[in-house]
Structures are given as structure tokens and as C-alpha cells.
Write a structure and sequence with these properties.
Number of strands: 15
Distance between the termini: 13 Å
Shape: globular
């Protein structure tokens, strides 16, 4: 059985991705279902988290966002039957690659794929949709009248955040790194309703004349932003850092533009706050939470809520609330190169493989 695997190393740059054959998995049992994979989507591998959780393997399976057809079910399965179309996220400790022709997966990791949603859209949206719901509902409370700042909103995750926040009636501000991304966001329109731009203001942070804090304060009448969702931050500035790193917001800028009782949702797992930063949060009554979608896989105490989120993501996708930013599906023989680019953050659209 063929799949995509990598050797776990200390840094992302040292990862080597290879297509190789593995032994077939055991027969279907208990709550497991066997699916025929149609499409698999790629996300970066968090090597540090895997190492800390003692999930190192000689060859780590790659490709956890999958969509396919159920071909066999275990005797205790109650959610699915053969020929059902499903989509889901493989557990972190899964031993099989999502690029395998067939997969054995627990039924509680899958939800039904709507008939009017394509295989590529389903697999390419499921994980970013989960992260979006966590950012805007689990960690914060987006609603009509709130202002949401989405950092680097032209990437696949940011695009989904913008669309869900707009659907909830929020006013959206977003940053971009170049004029191409700025044009993309300015032309982003809802699929239903009034055909106005989803983003109230797009801030090109590559322009040295533009100040992020001043732009946000101007747009909010000096009140600040209610919710900030980032894609990483600068903890400090240093000479010789990459252009991508320079475009990341500084932590002090985000703290400065937060409104009273504002909330910052961060993907920066190494965020450090100095005493002046904490005092600024205290004066504003603001808060910070960390976005880690893997918590659902690490604890099954809220499995029902997790599946409810995945189902709602698929429902929103089926009615047009979400439009994922996907690249054209690629064949499996191009998967190695595509995953290397995803791991190095060299692609701007979601990469999906059609099997």
C-alpha cells in the first residue's frame, strides 16, 4: 500500500518526504471504517509537537485531511454505511498516510460529506474550517458589530476566517504582504446577499509608509480591534531576519491595537510576554488564547462538540458561506515536491492531491 512519509528531524528544513509502500493494515473491526481515499490535502507537520508527545517514528505518515467513500464498516459502527461519502482529519498517532488508496479510520474522526461539495473542497477546507471555528467561537465570541483583524488574510486559513466573521456580521480588517494579495482580498465577495467586499480595509504591511496600529485605530475610530487572529508574530526584532519574518506583526503592535476587553488568538506557541505587555493587557481587560487544533485529537472528552464543528464546516461549505482557496489538484507523483513546499511555507494556496 503506497503512501507519503517523512523522517522526523529536529527542524522542518531537515525533513525528507518520500513515497513508499507499506504493509496492509488489519481487517476492519469495532468502530473502524475502511474508506477509499479520493482526495488528500496537505498542512505543515508540527515536528516539535510530535517529538514532545513521543510520537516519533522512523517514517512519519503525511496527509491527514482526507475525503473518500466508505467501502467497509466494522460491526460496532453506527454513523456510516458502505458507499457513504465522508471527510475527516486523521489522528496524530495514525500509522497510515492519507495518500494511501484505502484507509482504516475510527468513525469518530469522520463526518458526512455533502453531495454538492467536491472532494477537493471538502478535504481542503476541513482543517482550516476547524481552526476558524476555534478562533472565532471556542476562543472568542464573534458577533454583529465586532471588529476582527485577520493577519495575512489572503492565505487559505485567513480566507476562511474572513468569510465566517463576515457571515456573523463582523467588520473585518486584514493585512497582506503584497499588492497581489491586496487585490485578491479587495475583490473577495460573498456568494449570496449583497455583493460588497468582505473586507472593510486591507493593510499592505510591506509598504513602509503604512503603520498597522495607526491604520487599525483610524478604521475603528480610536476604539481598537475586538478580535485579532494572527499567523505568527515577531517576539523581537533583529538584523538579517527574512522578509517573511519582517512582515509578521510585532507582539507590542497587536497589544496596542486591541480594544478594551479585546481578545487575541495567536498561533505563536513560543509567545513571551514581558511585564509591560502584561500590564497593558491588564489595563485593557484584554486576553490571549492559543490556537492549537490538535487538542481535539489529544483528548476525546468533547468528541461530540468536535464532530459538531466538522459537520457545521461542511454545511457552511455546502451553502456557499465558505469558498476555500485551493490550488489545482495534483497527481500523487507530484506529492513529494508539493509537501516540501508546504512545509517551507512556499505556497499561498491549499495543496490537494487527487488519488
Amino acid at each position: 500500500m503506497r503512501g507519503l512519509y517523512c523522517q522526523l528531524a529536529q527542524s522542518n528544513e531537515d525533513l525528507k518526504f518520500v513515497l513508499q509502500d507499506k504493509e496492509s493494515f488489519p481487517s476492519v473491526c469495532d468502530h473502524y471504517v475502511k474508506i477509499q481515499v479520493r482526495v488528500c490535502a496537505f498542512s505543515p507537520v508540527n515536528t516539535k509537537l510530535l517529538s514532545e508527545l513521543k510520537l516519533q517514528k522512523d517514517f512519519l505518515p503525511i496527509g491527514r485531511e482526507v475525503a473518500g467513500v466508505v467501502i467497509e464498516v466494522g460491526p460496532k459502527v453506527s454513523f456510516f454505511k458502505p458507499n457513504d461519502e465522508v471527510v475527516g482529519i486523521l489522528p496524530m498517532d495514525c500509522t497510515e498516510s492519507g495518500l494511501s488508496n484505502t484507509l482504516l479510520i475510527h468513525e469518530h474522526s469522520l463526518v458526512t460529506k455533502p453531495k454538492n461539495v467536491s472532494w477537493a473542497d471538502a478535504a481542503g477546507t476541513i482543517r482550516d474550517g476547524l481552526r476558524t471555528y476555534m478562533a472565532l467561537h471556542t476562543h472568542s465570541s464573534v458577533s454583529a458589530g465586532t471588529t476582527v483583524l485577520v493577519m495575512d488574510g489572503a492565505n487559505p486559513f485567513g480566507t476562511i476566517v474572513i468569510q465566517l466573521a463576515h457571515h456573523r456580521g463582523a467588520k473585518i480588517i486584514s493585512t497582506v504582504h503584497n499588492n497581489e494579495d491586496k487585490k485578491y482580498l479587495e475583490e473577495l465577495r460573498p456568494t449570496v446577499g449583497i455583493r460588497q467586499s468582505l473586507v472593510a480595509r486591507v493593510i499592505n504591511v510591506s509598504d513602509s509608509k503604512v503603520d498597522l496600529v495607526d491604520s487599525c485605530m483610524e478604521e475603528t475610530g480610536g476604539l481598537g480591534v475586538n478580535i485579532v487572529v494572527d499567523c505568527g508574530v515577531q517576539l523581537y526584532s533583529k538584523d538579517g531576519e527574512s522578509a517573511v519574518k519582517r512582515h509578521l506583526p510585532h507582539k507590542h503592535d497587536i497589544l496596542s491595537l486591541l480594544a478594551v476587553a479585546g481578545h487575541w488568538v495567536t498561533t505563536e506557541e513560543n509567545l513571551q510576554l514581558d511585564p509591560p505587555d502584561s500590564r497593558l493587557l491588564f489595563y485593557k481587560g484584554a486576553s490571549i488564547s492559543f490556537l492549537n487544533e490538535e487538542v481535539w485529537q489529544l483528548s476525546n472528552m468533547q468528541q461530540g462538540k468536535y464532530l459538531h464543528i466538522l459537520k457545521d464546516v461542511m454545511e457552511k461549505l455546502s451553502i456557499g458561506t465558505f469558498r476555500p482557496q485551493l490550488d489545482e489538484p495534483i497527481p500523487i507523483y507530484e506529492a513529494t515536491v508539493a509537501m516540501e513546499m508546504v512545509q517551507k511555507n512556499q505556497v499561498r494556496k491549499k495543496q490537494v492531491v487527487r488519488l
